[in-house]
Write the structure tokens for this entry.
Amino acid sequence: MAELTILPAVDLKGGRCVRLRQGRADAETVYGDDPAAQAREWARQGAAWLHVVDLDGAFQGHPVHLDVIGRMASAAGIPVECGGGLRTDADLDALLACGVRRAILGTRALERMEDLAALAAKHGDRLAVGIDARDGRVQVKGWTETSRTTAVELARRAAGAGVRTIIYTDTATDGMLRGPNFDGNAELCDAVGPDCQVIASGGISSADDIRRLRALDRPNLAGAIVGKALYEGRVTLADLLAAARD
């Protein structure tokens, strides 16, 4: 089984570290007031990557926390991927300029698929597409709207355009601590082919979840994002890292 990269998640809302239950803005738990310190702490515990979401950006349609994200990237000293509100080229460039290693397109990837090939050619592996889906259908604009497009269809289009990283979240599992959508992740890996890596997100709550993801035996399943389970002490980063490589 291939080793997985574990990416601790830091979601930003109002300048603070929060988690939302199933992406609902009215179901918020605050975990800290210093995102840079949290980024530094995850790096200290052994994280090789950090996953950051500008929730206010996702809801408002433009990045809101660029300064905070820049401080996080500097404090962490490890690669950071980030998404939330990247609807224009200028916003995408601004996020990458503040020290983010990989920018994640969500709503724009669905609404302007015709842009993906040019963006992938320009940014290479610094570009990812985030596919957030409920019942197999893609959700956009901070998960407030559900489209008719399936996650598999968007994934195939993105991979065909040259996107080399897809982050897949089953929004029904996000923040629920009941495990990820294993079948959905396997299906997405198969859909995009070996040249596009998939990062699993949503519901991961234990080292056993990581082992089960690895047991899917999909070589292009490259990583797993974990948020609430870490913040609530359900599992340690050390245990997740061990499950990801042993």
